[in-house]
Structures are given as C-alpha cells and as structure tokens.
Amino acid sequence: ARLRAFAEETIDKGWWKLLWVPASMPYMAPGGPYSEIAAGSVTKRLIFSAWSSVPQSVSSLLSYEAERRMVAGSALRENTAEARRAVSSRLDYVVRDSRPASMSTLALFWPHPALAELGNPLAVLGDDPWFVDAGVVEDRVADKVRLLAKSPESAPHEAWEAFFAWPGSWPEGVPRRSDAAGYWLAGRGGATTTREAEEADSGQALPAHGKMALERQSAPRWHAELPRLALFAPANIVYRALSGICNEDSTDLRIQLWRQAARLANGIRTLFNRPEVMFLLDQLYGREPYWKSVLRYCADGNLQSVLDEYFFQLKLELGGSGVDANGLAQITNRAIEALALRPSRYSARGPAEEVAKTQITARFALRYGSAAKDAESVRAPEVRKAFNSPFWPFVLASTSVGQEGIDFHWWSHSVVHWNLPSNPVDFEQREGRVNRFGGHAVRKNVAAAHRHSALASARSGRNPWESAFGAADDHPELGEFSPWWIYPGDARVERLIVNFPLSRDEHQCERLRDSLTLYRLMLGQPRQEDMMELLQRRGVKANEVAKLDLRPPRRSSTDHR
C-alpha cells in the first residue's frame, strides 16, 4: 500500500517520460511530455527508511514499472538481456558499401561552433516576459540562417549535407585534419569514454564519418531542418552550455571546448541509444526518422537551459572562478559519469524457497549504499553524482547510510520518510540532505523571481544564472543566508510522510513534531538529547515554548541612518 501511494506521486504523474528534470529557468515553453505535467513540481525524490529491505524493493519495483511503460507497444516481447541485445541501435555509426551511412547521426553529435552561435536561443528570445514556443524561436533562427545561406534552389537534398557544408564546423585556428575528427569525436587520446560508446564506435566507422564531414565544408547552404539542428542538436547545445561557463577566449581553450563538447555529446548519444529510450520516443513522436525525434525531445525538454543550470552548479563546485581547459575536462567528466552510470541489477525471489531468483534492472530509481559490502555499496559515490545531475535516477532510496554528511540537494528538495525515525535528530538529518547551499528549491525561487532580467542580460553574453543570483540579492532582511541558502518563493523542502490511519506511525508523527520543535531550541547544546529528555520529563510542551526570533530588528520609516 505504501509503494502504491508513492508510485502515484512519481510514475502515474508521467515522470517515466522524462529523461532529465525540467529546468528551473526554462528558456522556451515546455513541450511534449514536459508540457503534460506540472514541470515546476518535478524534483527528484529522496527516500529514507529504517528497514533495510525498503531501498532495494522500492528501487526495483519503481524502475521496473517505469521501464515497462517506456517499452509498451514496442517490438520488445520479453524483458531479457538476449531480447535487448536483439534490438537494433539507431544511433550507431555504420559504413555500408564503403561509404558512411550515419551522417544524420553525426550531425546531431558534432559540435558546429558557427551554427551553435547562430542557433543560440538566448540571442533571439526578445523582450517577451512570457514563455516563447520553441517553434517561434526556430522561425527566428531560420530568418538569420536564410540571410547567410544561398538561395533555396541550391538547397542540398539531405539536412546533414547543409549542416557540414556550412563553414565553421571546426575550431577556429586549427587546421582541418580529417583523421583527427573521428579521433576526437570518439573521445580517445587520453579522454575517458564509456564501454558502451567504445563498442559502438569500434573500427573505422566514426573516422570515416568525420572525414566525410570535413570534406563537405564549402559555403552556407539552406535546408529546412538546418535551423532546428543549429538550435537543438545535442552537440551544439553542449557546446553553448560549456562556452557559457568559460571566462576567457584563446585558441587552446577553443580547442578544448570543441573536444569536450564532442565527448559529452557522445555521452548523450548513448542515452538516446538505449532500447527503452528509443521505444519511448516512438510512443511520443511516432516512427519518424529517429534523429528528428531526438531533436524534438531536446526542444520539448529545454535541454539547453537544463545543461546551463547543471554546468553552473558544477562550476560552483570548482569554486565559481574562471573555468580553464582543466576545469572544462573535470566538468565534462562529471556529466559523462552521470550519463554513463550502469544500471543496477537487483535480485528478488518469491516466498517459496524453490522459486528461482529474478533479476530486475534499475535505472529510474536506485538504492544508495548498503550495510553489506557488496558491489552496489562500492559504487555509492557514482550513484550520488548521478542523483546530483538532472538525469536518471529520479528516486534514490537509502537507510541511515545516506542521512548524514552527504549532499543530495542539486536536483532534489523532496524527502520521503518511508517510516519515521525514532528521534528528531535523525529526522532533521534526513531533511538536511536537500536543504543546502544553492539547492534545487532555492534555484527555482530565484529563477521565478528574476527569469526575465536574467535572460535579458544573457543577450549581452552574461551567464543567465550568474545574472539571476546577482539580481537576487534584494532581501537584506534575510541576512547572509540569502540568496544561496534561502529565498522566498513557492518552492520549499517537501516532507512526505508515508503513513496510514491506525498505523503506529500516526502517533509517532505527532510525537516527533513536538520533539522536533524542542530539538531546534536545543541547537548549540553539547548534549541535545539529554536536554530534550529533561524538558519533556518536566512537562514542557512545544506549543508552550516561546519562539526565538534571531532576525535583526526592522528599521523604522523614520530611521534614515
């Protein structure tokens, strides 16, 4: 019953259709699956339970249900590893008859500096304070592209031909080397790659595509799909997002920017190359060419604004100063690790001893840590980094292992108490995991208050998130905690308590609420639990205790000092 109630809060709301958390500051009106739900209410869920069986059970069943809905109506008839391997990937680089046959795929994941600049949505949003539809933004970019392109009569037949014919597909100041193109795109040469990507790009398929791409560069050519590629191709989005956190401009940095954008774009390719994701996009957009579905999903989900927000957080983790080539590599590695996180495989069995174990693959929800030293507990840092990204997992379930000293606040401000702890100290520790510096709730409130001014300043080249937090320093009554720790708005830390009538948790919840009030009065005491026990034995009740107001006094209207 508890699991059914919680599933209604996640799966039944349509979260299984989302590959990343909606942006706190979307640049365009959400579309597709992101318009079907209350995007502002989506935040990752952090579950705590005192029962050791809960994390694995909840993670297994939620992930299974999310994946089951993603593959509904597809050609996948059984949930086995053999059946999955039989599904053809649609974004692999293939050579047929000695010719590259996946150039449309390459156009999605090749960073094109010139087209990325032309397709910057922040440059064409205008002064409209409301959300602009992605189609309107695409029309504005199309007007810019038409002015530079040759007449439509000379338009190439394929969109990828126009994409690679457009000058500026290679970092400025670097000689074009067809052999290096595939080398960089594959992420080799000292750069880490995922095993999945290496297997897909084995042989000479990718270098052959890179060579053809550079040979096609000639003059600006028009194609109807070119503005959409400039705007929503994942590689161009990544290139713009990474360039938005750089505070310097040099040839060396431009080379590294292109290289890191190519690596991360390849990581996004592995995301869209998963069988369940391919089947999800088929449900959403029908069986159109898959590369077009990828573009539509990136537009609907505001991937540009999501990555701008994510990289802003990663930059803060590095100290918030200028990002050099080494910083770019660190930020890119973090994002690739989150995208390339291997699914967990949990074992389940029925009540009868003779029932064989059932393997369940988990991505949507994961278990954090374990009391036992198994493989899942060893990779707890990787799971935490993935949860602190906008990508899956959307739910993280843990016992007391995850309730102290660990940050889970980057994309979550919702704590679920599967069952209640025995004391208010643990209660406060749980919720403290998502109430941290620059947390998800804080960013939502800052974005809601200052979105228009932040996007207006972005047209002059400023990072929209730096502008938003710069403008948010307008509540002196909140003291030094504003705007990074607290900021007024609708978003706040959510407390979800899964209890039911006639449950012992009902009385436990009332007792904890009273104890929590007293506990907060004891902050700073060396032995808080002893002090609380003393007050409770003497009959002190929480509702009878005067609240402490540590805010500075308000200045009167006659005080002009």
SSE diagram, text form:
Blueprint: H1 2-10, E1 44-48, H2 54-70, H3 81-85, E2 95-96, E3 99-100, H4 103-109, H5 113-118, H6 134-148, H7 159-165, H8 178-185, H9 195-200, H10 205-215, H11 226-232, H12 234-243, H13 251-272, H14 275-285, H15 290-300, H16 303-317, H17 325-339, E4 344-348, E5 358-362, E6 365-367, H18 375-378, H19 380-387, E7 395-398, E8 412-417, H20 424-432, H21 440-458, H22 464-471, E9 494-497, H23 504-521, H24 528-537
Parallel strand pairs: 1-7, 1-8, 6-7, 8-9
Antiparallel strand pairs: 2-3, 4-5
Helix pairs in contact: 4-7, 6-11, 8-10, 11-12, 11-15, 12-13, 12-16, 13-17, 14-15, 17-19, 20-23, 21-22
* Uncertain runs: 189-202
Number of strands: 9
Task: Give me the secondary-structure category.
Answer: alpha/beta
- The radius of gyration computed from the alpha-carbon positions, rounded to a whole number of angstroms, is 26 Å
Summarize this, please?
By secondary structure, the protein is of the alpha/beta class. The protein has helices at 2-10, 54-70, 81-85, 103-109, 113-118, 134-148, 159-165, 178-185, 195-200, 205-215, 226-232, 234-243, 251-272, 275-285, 290-300, 303-317, 325-339, 375-378, 380-387, 424-432, 440-458, 464-471, 504-521, 528-537, and strands spanning 44-48, 95-96, 99-100, 344-348, 358-362, 365-367, 395-398, 412-417, 494-497. It has 24 helices and nine strands.
Structure overview:
- This protein has about 550 residues and is α/β, with parallel strands linked by helices.
- The chain is built from 24 helices and nine strands.
- It has helices spanning about 1-10, 55-70, 80-85, 105-110, 115-120, 135-150, 160-165, 180-185, 195-200, 205-215, 225-230, 235-245, 250-270, 275-285, 290-300, 305-315, 325-340, 375-380, 380-385, 425-430, 440-460, 465-470, 505-520, 530-535, and strands at about 45-50, 95, 100, 345-350, 360, 365, 395-400, 410-415, 495.
- Strands 6-7-1-8-9 form a five-stranded parallel β-sheet, with helices on one face.
- The longest helix is centred in the middle third of the chain and has 22 residues, at about 250-270.
